[in-house]
Amino acid sequence: MADETDNRPPHRGLKKGLYVFPTLFTAANVAMGYWAVLSSIRGFALITADPAKAATYFDQGALAIGLAILFDTVDGRVARATRTATEIGVQFDSLADVLTFGIAPTALLFGWAIAPTFSENTPGYGIGVFLVFVYLMCGAFRLARFNLQATRPVKLIEGATKVDKKAFVGLPIPPAGGLLAAIVHYAPQPLNVYGWRPSHYYAYALLGLVAVLSLLMVSTIRYTSGKSAKPTGRPGFLLVLLFAAIGAAVWFWSQYALVIIAGVYVAHGVVWWLVRPLFVRTRGGEA
Fold this sequence. Notes:
This protein has nine helices and two strands, in the order αααααβααβαα. It has helices spanning 12-18, 20-45, 51-81, 87-117, 123-151, 173-186, 196-218, 233-252, 254-286; strands at 167-169, 222-224. The protein has a two-stranded antiparallel ribbon with strand order 1-2.
């Protein structure tokens, strides 16, 4: 009837539609991981026949992982800004991260560094395959721990602490995978083009970095989350200028800027972990 009253909440359809936006960015994250894996496979197939073409595919895979970091950052901020964060969204985001920052970097490293450098059934090959598997497992464990803390932000066991939204516990998997991708982007040619001895040196150094990243992901070292930063006032203006400068550096000098940015983020947690006791002792002495 014409005089019937519509008791539905206003903008109900619009509110439901807002839940789609974070999911779209997460889906883009998955797409970038899928693209990175395919590019790694294409590059691996050409490491002997056409190293230059292989380098193009490896670079595409590395850039896909870099773009995925952008989508992964945006989806969480969009969900918080629109108040559309859900538990299923948290789980979907983590599954996407396992693909994009866990499986994709391992496929990229295998095709770009391990397979071109080491022959099968050699110690180096076995160590390489094992360490990238450890990286994948540590990344998956890191995401599982994060999800548990995010959905149950209270004391889970005796001695556990509340979640600090200003910091991540352990190195997040996106910057870990991002650093590996940035290294490939810096020098996308497969390692076999450098000769037998240099390629082995580079490969073992890279595997050492993979081991360090794996340990950092499952550690309790705290890393800045950036969630508490608000672009308001003078500090906010300076923050916007900083992001603009970083964006310009990435646009014009991506090969150098991405390695530096990812390396600084990975290192800053370790540096703060080492120097923090000095500040704590100083404050304790003054008190």
